[in-house]
Amino acid sequence: MQNKIINYQLNINWPDFIKNYWQKRPLLIKQGFTNFIDPISANDLAGLAMEDEVDSRLVSFQDGSWNVTHGPFDSYDQLAKTGWSLLVQAVNHWHYPSTALIAPFRVLSDWRIDELMVSYSVPAGGVGPHIDQYDVFIIQGLGRRHWRVGEKIALKQHCPHPDLLQVEPFAAIIDEKLKPGDILYIPPGVPHEGYSIETSLNYSVVFRSPTSRALFSSFADNLIANDLGNYHYSDPDIATRDNPAMILPT
Questions:
Q1: Whole-model pTM?
Q2: Long-range own/partner contacts, residues 38-41 (CB < 8 A, 24 or more apart)
Q3: Would you say residue 149 lies in a domain?
Q4: What values do phi and psi take at 26, rounded to 5?
Q5: Are 98 and 118 in contact (CB under 8 A)?
């Protein structure tokens, strides 16, 4: 097991990135990490997916149909040699050395950082063309993966499996084969698809933004949980008005 904490140095011009790309356009950062070293092995990732507390899933495409199976998993012996991916959520919560991959991105707001998701894919493994509603930096680790990214336009969505939402084919503005250390930034709502050329590991640093409904709900929950807001509204200097139904700016 890899226990050494690696000091990853990210090659990026943050002011330029935030001005021209953050939540605007996708970007391929070639060798964002030079001499990249995987913080976790494929075996350790597979072991995490066997734990009850860890959220994981297997996505496969075999004989023309998609299938999704949720962990924990007892064995992987039944899997084919091609066409599947193992995705493990919040690896930074369960594998301490992997937290080092989040540190270089903390120029951005901490409260927006959601998780480090790690995927292991065999050749032709992927989850199909899709759209996410979050910002993500996808770091290429072991192996190579072919990525296609399109413009942010309206696309029809469909479910080839109840647990899998995909989009129709799209024209690519980024069409590249990523090598270890390459990074792909994808803003919310931008279509993308990736397939492994060879056995590979990918690390997704995910930044989520809450809906306004969730923000208001969290604010209300905080008031209730901390017994705040118990004072009554008062208006000792109430102004007269022609229409009693009118709510004055004051």
A1: 0.88
A2: 38/2, 38/141, 38/142, 38/201, 39/2, 39/6, 39/95, 39/97, 39/98, 39/100, 39/101, 39/203, 40/2, 40/91, 40/95, 40/97, 40/98, 40/118, 40/201, 41/1, 41/2
A3: yes
A4: -70, 160
A5: yes
Residue 116 lies in a domain: yes
Domain hosting residue 86, numbered range? 14-207
Number of domain units in the chain: 1
Q: What is the CATH number of the domain that holds 22?
A: 2.60.120.650
Note the pLDDT tens digit of each residue in 107-162. Answer: 999 999 999 999 999 999 999 999 999 999 999 999 999 999 999 999 999 999 99
Neighbours of 10 (CB within 10 A): 17
* Buried residues in 110-126 as b, exposed as e (16+ CB within 10 A): eeebbbbbbbbbbbbbb
Question: Is 195 inside a domain boundary?
Answer: yes
| Distance set, CA 5 to CA 8, 39, 45 (Å) | 9, 8, 17
**Residue 227 covered by a domain:** no
